[in-house]
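Exercise 7. Predict the joint structure of the components listed below.
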Amino acid sequence: MARKKAKRLAPKKITKTLDIPEDVIFNSPRITMMSNKELRIENYTSILLYEENQVSVATKDVILSIQGENFSIEIITDDEFTLTGSIVCLEFSQSRS
Amino acid sequence: MFLIYLKGFLTITVSGRFCERFINVCASRGILLWNVVRISDCAIRCRISVSDFKKISDITTDVNVTVQINIKHGLPFLIQKYKKRHVALLGCFIFIVLVIVSNLFVWKIEITGNKKIPQEKIISVLKDTGLKKGMLRSKIDPHQLQRDTLLKLPELAWLWVYHNGSKVIVDVRENIEIPKIYNHDDYTNIIAKRDGIIETMTVRGGIPVLSEGDTVLKDTVIVTGKVPSTVRQENRYIRADAEILARVWYEEKEIFSGLASVKNETGKKKTHFTLHFFDKDLNLFKNKEPFEHFLCDTKTYSLFGIGFTKKTYKEVEITEELQNLQTVADYGITQLKAKIESQVSPNSLLRDIKSSYKKLNKTSVEVTVIAEYLEDIAVTVPGVRTEDLN
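Solution:
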């Protein structure tokens, strides 16, 4: 049990000691926002829903649901995309995996 | 963005139930999409490069969506559009060649730095020495032009020619007037330039004959350079030097007529054109003016030394109208004040100015302006020695 716990916490300790960003090691999503007009997500998995007023994005750990108005994807690549529009709220929910 | 434009890109509409799947599959395969906008429940519009568009045919089949091209952007499509327009392409080519060839010639000569010497004089001398409109820029030799032009124009101290495209700029510097050099043994006196009352005297050399407060008439000696010697019998002669500030009066009197000529347009117009080819003019009409009394508006248009002048002649009828005599008097006062100012030396100080007018008859007034100035009235003149007279 203790060995399992240590094994789980080891990567976190290593990144903290060596001061390496967590999203690079763990592929965690990094969300950057500029006011409520632009949102950039790095390390996303797929787009679950894309509508004018709602966008749902699946990442490694969570599902991010973005609500607002007049959404458009400014640019999309295999690991990041930029969403523009008028963002009203962000909702995080646990992914099934 | 410019690189993408060079390669070309498309605005496409993707229609189907699973547009999100289409986006995800494109992203996973490294196909770049941008400006993705939802246009309806079953359709999105986005932009994609031409090279990536060729890769999405199997994706559309797998995901079960249809793709429609809305707009084609970029240089490849522009070239395809204009490929068949041979004459337009030839025209562009001829235009580029003409611009390059015309840039080899001189089309404009600009003179800078001259204050007293008129531009036309410098340009005519430059023409004789080998610089004129329409010549090849490569034939300009600044050193030779400088040598030859300075020889022909001794009023110039320095000259240089440089070109900025098809414009040649000639930068000149004029000679500074050499001040008169006086010999130490020269005998000069200071006399009055005009009548006045001496207010202050600053004598730097010589013996003052008059003093402050004295009235002086024109050409009267104020400071003499003849210094009587107390040691020897003979006089000593030196150069008198002084600044004499005196109160002087300028008076101007003139009769001004109240009848003014008023020009009313009759509505008749005629236009004459003159063609210019470098320095040569060609009149398309005889030089004769079409009307007896007219107003002429002249406009010149030219490009690369070739152009034309458009003269529009408007016939006018001249009638005489009686003006308000007060207005005429005010105008007269302004004119006479300007006349007085043109006569006064630059360093003079205006003390007082009085103006008046008198009506002579119904149509004319006599205007008088008297101005008092504080002016330096000293003028240096050579003196005559008593020994030379004997």
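Discussion. Residues 11 and 17 of chain A are 10 Å apart (CA to CA).
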